[in-house]
């Protein structure tokens, strides 16, 4: 295609040069076997289009890297190399195959388990769930031919399934009871067992071996007072004799240590017990080193430590400084470490507008918070001095940011919490829990971190969009039960536990509500048939709804709505034609909606500051970076240290 463009636009050197450069980039993506063709293509850019300075500069840089890599291969030298494989779809919860050919991931568009071919960037689905169930964590077989994965078959029912990459049908290896949770951690080197992290008992994680042949289970390690949201790692050694794993130093601590135990559980030793946080990445292919990430220098760095016969040997070795916040994807058989950059993950932004005219005074600016790309769900305190939000780093951490001191308190709980909403006294926060059988609506004391359950969901139910009344006595929320096609807006008295139905809404999910500042009115954004969203206002005590706006919106997006502090306006957002989202407001009495002229990647968890000027939300910018797959090669220390 690009060669055709060169021939067609031979008189337009700008277009022809760009096409020639892209030929080189195509060959480069195909790997080392096409290195010679890539070099020739980049050289043609330099020779044939010398006046196209920017394109020539790029070609020269690419050619220089290729020639250097070729020289290393020819001389047999190996130098540490960090390179980007490609921009990839929004992925996660998978890993790189042992041979490095594929990356498993969850396709959130279709609700299927999928794989990405690293050489070409092409993807394909391995399952055909289509949201009749959906996958989560996946791990590869040692021969790179099968994937074991977690499948949410129905509410509160988790299955462990195996599927081949050859198009075979998945088979269910193990089906857990309601309320139990399981995650595959690794596949044994001989292919006979799946190492899992199972949560069958309260506050307990069990490392188990599940037979691939018959699904039988053997517990090899029980960890007490463990929090599921912490996301420990556990992996077999290359010969299958040992298991390395990490877990919190003390209960719900944010800091981890790394341990190693024999497969029969008879021998266990600490490998890394530094006061700082250490996180397991995996084993070197020869089994002589453990690779991990540590914050011991103040930044997230890549380290290794030698091991022999189930014991640590010597002190850890620093491999690479400041690797940053990444999502590890595993170490391949040739010793390459793959990871994902943040990509489409969220940050918290604030825009400033004139409340009278709706004119934007200051465009959205990212709030300077640690762990960029991992922060979302902002909520202002009633006095506007604190911002509650959630930071996710393979686990959800609840944060409270002080505007005056710029200090952050981090709270870690036994469940993932989201959708924070402050109680009017500013001393506690209403949250929604999203892990296991403990799902429901809870209250968190911001001083002590104590959690009190207020509403517990039952099987098949989903509790959405919780709101607290200005007097702190009532909770408004949406209850959805798709199997029963029952979708309700309810109000509950916190003290008595009594609740009543305010409204029964159409049997479609992704609905949101927002309570007015005076507690007298309830705004509803209801999804109806035909991808239609209807924005309505009704009395908080119940009664007739008044529709104030209607618009088309494709997809199953949860669109948040928010009131201005004076109750005059309701803010909402909808998708724009160019693939971004635009922010709107409309009078709570109805009338013409006003486009505020802002375009962002999204406006998730929309929240208005008490001053009525600051609009805060989680998003990625309009010109967002794609999530990227990177690899670090030739980073393992040479084995000459071994005596």
Can you walk me through this structure?
It is built from 4 helices and 47 strands. It has 4 domains: 2-75; 87-231 and 327-343 and 624-636, TolB, C-terminal domain (Neuraminidase, 6 Propeller), CATH 2.120.10; 237-324, no CATH class; 347-619, Neuraminidase, CATH 2.120.10. The protein is mainly β and 643 residues long.
Radius of gyration: 27 Å
CATH architecture of the largest domain: 6 Propeller
Strand-residue proportion: over 45%
Write down the overall mean pLDDT: 87
Instruction: Please report the first level of CATH classification, the CATH class of the largest domain.
Output: Mainly Beta
Low-confidence stretches: none
In total, the number of strands is: 47
Q: Kindly report the spatial arrangement of strands forming the biggest sheet.
A: 1-47-22-21
Number of domains: 4
Q: Percentage of helical residues?
A: under 10%
CATH superfamily of the largest domain: TolB, C-terminal domain
């Amino acid at each position: 295609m690009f060669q055709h463009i060169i021939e067609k636009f031979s008189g337009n050197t700008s277009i022809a040069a760009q096409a020639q450069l892209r030929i080189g980039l195509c060959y480069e993506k195909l790997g080392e076997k096409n290195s010679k063709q890539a070099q020739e293509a980049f050289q043609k850019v330099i020779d044939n289009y010398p006046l196209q300075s920017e394109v020539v500069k790029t070609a020269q840089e690419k050619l220089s890297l290729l020639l250097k890599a070729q020289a290393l291969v020819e001389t047999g030298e190996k130098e540490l190399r960090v390179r980007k494989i490609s921009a990839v779809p929004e992925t996660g919860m998978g890993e790189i195959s042992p041979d490095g050919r594929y990356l498993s991931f969850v396709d959130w568009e279709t609700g299927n388990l999928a794989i990405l071919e690293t050489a070409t960037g092409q993807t394909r689905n391995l399952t055909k769930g289509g949201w009749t169930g959906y996958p989560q964590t996946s791990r590869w077989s040692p021969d790179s031919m099968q994937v074991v994965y977690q499948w949410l078959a129905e509410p509160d029912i988790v299955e462990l399934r195996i599927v081949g990459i050859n198009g075979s049908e998945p088979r269910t290896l193990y089906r857990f009871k309601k309320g139990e949770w399981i995650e595959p951690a690794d596949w044994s080197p001989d292919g006979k067992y799946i190492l899992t992290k199972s949560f069958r008992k309260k506050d307990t994680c069990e490392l188990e071996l599940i037979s691939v042949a018959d699904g039988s289970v053997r517990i090899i390690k029980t960890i007490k007072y463990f929090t599921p949201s912490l996301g420990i790692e556990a992996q077999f050694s290359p010969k299958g004799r040992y298991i390395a794993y990490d877990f919190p130093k003390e209960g719900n601590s944010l800091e981890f240590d790394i341990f190693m135990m024999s497969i029969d559980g008879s021998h266990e030793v600490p490998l890394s017990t530094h006061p700082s946080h250490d996180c397991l990445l995996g084993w070197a292919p020869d089994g002589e080193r453990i690779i991990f990430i540590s914050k011991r220098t103040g930044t997230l760095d890549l380290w290794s430590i030698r091991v022999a016969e189930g014991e640590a040997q010597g002190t850890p070795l620093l491999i690479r400084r400041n690797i940053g916040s990444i999502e590890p994807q595993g170490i391949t058989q040739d010793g390459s470490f793959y990871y994902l950059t943040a990509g489409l993950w969220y940050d918290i932004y604030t825009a400033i507008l004139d409340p009278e005219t709706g004119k934007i005074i200051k465009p959205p600016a990212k709030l300077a918070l640690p762990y960029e790309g991992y922060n979302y769900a902002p909520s202002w305190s009633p006095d506007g001095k604190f911002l509650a939000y959630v930071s996710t780093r393979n686990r959800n951490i609840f944060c409270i940011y002080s505007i005056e001191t710029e200090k952050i308190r981090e709270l870690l709980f036994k469940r993932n919490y989201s959708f924070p909403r402050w109680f009017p006294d500013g001393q506690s926060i209403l949250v929604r829990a999203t892990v296991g059988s403990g799902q429901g609506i809870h209250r968190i004391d911001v001083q002590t971190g104590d959690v009190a359950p207020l509403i517990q969901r039952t099987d098949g139910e989903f509790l959405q969009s919780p709101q607290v009344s200005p007097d702190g006595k009532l909770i408004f929320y949406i209850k959805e039960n798709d199997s029963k096609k029952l979708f309700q807006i309810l109000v509950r008295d916190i003290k008595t536990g009594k609740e009543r139905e305010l409204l029964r809404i159409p049997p479609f999910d992704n609905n949101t509500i927002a309570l007015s500042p005076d507690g007298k009115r309830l705004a509803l954004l209801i999804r109806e048939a035909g991808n239609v969203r209807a924005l309505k206002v009704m009395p908080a005590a119940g009664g007739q709804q008044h529709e104030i706006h209607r618009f088309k919106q494709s997809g199953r997006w949860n669109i948040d709505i928010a009131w201005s502090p004076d109750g005059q306006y309701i803010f909402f957002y909808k998708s724009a034609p160019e693939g971004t989202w635009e922010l709107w407001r409309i009078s709570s009495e109805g009338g013409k909606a006003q486009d505020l002229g802002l375009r962002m990647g999204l406006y998730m968890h929309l929240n208005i500051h008490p001053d009525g000027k600051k609009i805060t939300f989680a998003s990625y910018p309009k010109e967002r970076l794609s999530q990227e797959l990177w690899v670090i090669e030739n980073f393992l220390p040479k084995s000459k240290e071994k005596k």
